[in-house]
UniProtKB/TrEMBL annotation:
Subcellular localization, as worded in the UniProt entry: Cytoplasm
Lineage: Bacteria, Bacillati, Bacillota, Bacilli, Bacillales
Description of how the protein assembles with itself and partners: Homodimer.
Active-site residues annotated for this sequence: C112, H237, N267
Species for this entry: Virgibacillus oceani
Gene Ontology annotations for the cellular component aspect, listed alphabetically: cytoplasm
Protein name (database record): Beta-ketoacyl-[acyl-carrier-protein] synthase III
Single GO MF annotation: beta-ketoacyl-acyl-carrier-protein synthase III activity
EC number: 2.3.1.180
Gene of this entry: fabHA
Amino acid sequence: MSVGILGTGHYVPSNVVTNKDMEKIVETSDEWIRTRTGIEERRIAGDDVDTSDMAFFAAQDALKEANIKAEELDLILVATVTPDSPFPSVACRIQDRLGAENAAAMDIGAACSGFMYGVITAKQFIDTNAYKHILVVGVEKLSKITDWKDRNTCVLFGDGAGAAVVGKVSEGKGILSFELGANGAGGKHLYQDDKQHLIQNGREVFKFAVRQMPKSAVSVIEKIGLNKDEVDYLIPHQANIRIMDAARERLGISEGKMAKSITKYGNTSAASIPIALSEDVKNGKIKDNDLLVLVGFGGGLTWGAVALRW
Ligand code: ACO
C-alpha cells in the first residue's frame, strides 16, 4: 500500500468580483489584469463567512467524496495565513463542527505552499502507520488582509477553500515523490505588515516563482525515474498564468493538461491547488491512473511539489 488522496472537496463564496468591478475600486483595467496575470474574476466572502466556514464546507465535500466519516479522522491539518484567530486554530474549529472527535488538529503556516506542506506532512504519519485518515485543508480569506487601495496587490487575490482526505491507496498509486523547500532570506519580498496587509515585491516574487516552480515540477518526476512527457496533468499554484505557463512549458505539456482556475478565482493562496484538484476531479479532467504533478510556491519563501498517480 502507498499513501494517496481518497477524496477531494472545495468551496468558493458566491460573490463574484470581476475585473470591471476592480476598475471601480482602484486605477486599473480589465486588460492590464488579464494580460499580466490571467485573472478575469475572483470570489470574495462576505462578513458572515469566515475562514473556518469555508474550510468546513470544503471538508464536508471531501469526506463525502472519500466516503469517510468525521469520526474516522485521526488528524486535521489546515493550511492558512488568514485564520479566524491565531487560536483556537481553524483546524480545531472545524474539528468541532465536523464532529471529528478522534482527530488531533493544528494549523500550518507556509503561505501559498501550505497545502503541499500539509499533504506531505500527512503522508509521513500514514507511512509510519501512526494514523489512517488525515484531512488536509487549504483555505484563505485573503480579502481580510488585502489593502483595497493598493492596485499592485488587490487585483490578484480571492477567497476560497479546498480539501483532501489522505490515506492508504493501492500500491503504485498515490504520492510517488515529493519536494519541500524554504528560503527565509527571501521572506522580505512577501509578508504581512503592521496593518495586517499583504505586501509583496511582485517582480522579486515573480523571478523566484518562475525559477522555482518549473524546477520543482521537473525534480519530482526525475526522482521517480519517469520522463516529463509521461505527466498527464499539472496543477500549479494559481498565482499568475505566466508563472504557471513557465512550469507547463518546462514539462513540455500542452495547455489543456494544466489546471487553470486562476481565471475564475484569482490567487487563493493555500486554497488554490486543492480547489483546482477538486474541481478537475469532479469535472472528469483527472482520470484514474493519471500521473499528476502538484506544485506550489509562496510566502516564506516556501515551495513544495508532489508527483502523484491518481
Ligand atoms: N493595474 C494597472 N497597473 C498596475 C497594476 C494594476 N492593478 N498594478 C501594478 N501596475 C503598474 C505598476 O505600477 C507598474 O507601473 P510603472 O512601470 O509605472 O511603475 C506597471 O504596472 C508594471 O508593473 P510590473 O511590476 O512590472 O508588472 P509585472 O508584469 O511584474 O506584473 C505582477 C505584476 C502581476 C504582480 C507580477 O509581478 C506577479 O505576478 N508577481 C508574482 C506575484 C505572486 O505570484 N505572488 C504570490 C503571492 S503568494 C502568497 O503567498 C499570497
